[in-house]
Please model this.
Amino acid sequence: MSRRNLKKHFEILELDSDASLPEIKNAYVRLKKLYSTDSMVMTPIADEFSKKKRLEVLKQIEEAHAKLSDELKDEHQRSANLGKPGIASGNGTEGEEAESVSFSGEVLRKIREKKGIHLYEVALDTKIRVEILENIEHERFDVLPQEVYLKGHVSNYARYLLLDPRKVADDYISRYKDWKGEAKEKD
Amino acid sequence: MEKSSTEKEGKIWAIGGGKGGTGKTFITSAIGTYIAGKGKRVVLIDVDIGGANLHSFLGINRPKKSLTDFFETGASLSKLAVKTGIDNMSLISGDIHSLASDSIKFTQKLKLFRHIMKLNKNYVIIDLGGGSHNNTIDTFLMADKRVVILEPEITSVENMYHFIKNALFRKLRMSLREYGFKEIVEQMWERRQEYKIKSLRELMDHIRDSFSYVGDIIDKELSDFKLYLILNKIRSSDDILIGSSMKSIFKKYLCVDTRFVGFVEYDDSVWRSIRERRPFMLNYSLSRSAKEVEVFTENLLNGKEIKLSRS
Model:
């Protein structure tokens, strides 16, 4: 589906139809927050904004976001496959990174920051708590959950960043194991 | 986004927003001082009925002549303008308390605007004052650039929403009357319960559905009705989000496009300047708030929005 056919969804998120993935993300988080909490800005329209309306609006926002990120991820990948720069320029380096770089918490954080995504946005979507994400990025292995859970979290986070979940999880867990080995030696 | 020539050329700016005390007068004086400093000829007009005190923000005395002289004796506007002590900038006082403001006829307002447009100035900046009186709304509607000042407070949000809603309703009614469809809006609004119309948005949608040709007129009026939003007296960076939220609500519920041009943080040096009888922008030209004024004034001049790293 071309961007033109997605006009309705862009409008719901109050975006122009050339918006990038991070922009879509930002708009989605902002609007979801606006309509799901009792912002002071909603007071003048409290009469019109029934519970039913609220759910309707939130549903539209969810749909628009799901649809757009889905479609544009494809677009992004297609253009990456063709060797052309991706739509969200600056994000096109992940492919190289996936091959040459070992995924540490630091690398994940850098990739996320380059995309302009906040941790709380990741948390909202992946349902992983912000503190855990933060600990993953800072590799605070001593406070992170057990290996099986950790592996799940890391692959979810990787998927969210459009990285290969298996490769990222393997790299990350091997670092975790190294630390564990060292920790044991110390004991 | 298409840019009409009037937007860039927009000579007459109205500063309003419903609630009193949100800082319209301060912002009018600050915008004026900044633009005059760029070498443009500026005149400020104070039409804040009952609360005209723009002169105090400039550190000068209340002008002796005012728009009352224009309406009553036909004095020319250039005769009413007084020096402000700032190069390139003069002030016309709109102190019209001696004249019952309700008695100003619509044709007189049109005449005033014709004269304002003829002033040999680059920019005319009108401080509207608070309230949603028809005089205030008409002046707001006639301006080329409609600027609204919001304070991050519930009362300010509510008053601004109703101010804009009233202004839009009045504009639609006036333009539909021009086309001979005056009754449509009024009848539908009066029978809104029957039609299950709760909001202006629903009213507009309803009219559009019933009379497609009227829908075209509404669409045109709406695309002309652009707002410029400034957030004043913010106390934390979280407050900035209120500007973006207000923009969303205007779009969704009133179908109005808003440009969020900037914000100014709460700053004690504003009232200190008034006490010292010195214009803020000169007295505290290096302060953060002065820089923030510069940013949104440039955005107003260029029809741009503020760049938020995260909006």
Residues 1-8 of chain B have pLDDT under 50 and may be disordered. Residues 44 and 91 of chain B are 5 Å apart (CA to CA). The beta strands of chain B are 12-16, 42-46, 82-83, 89-93, 123-127, 145-150, 226-234, 257-265.
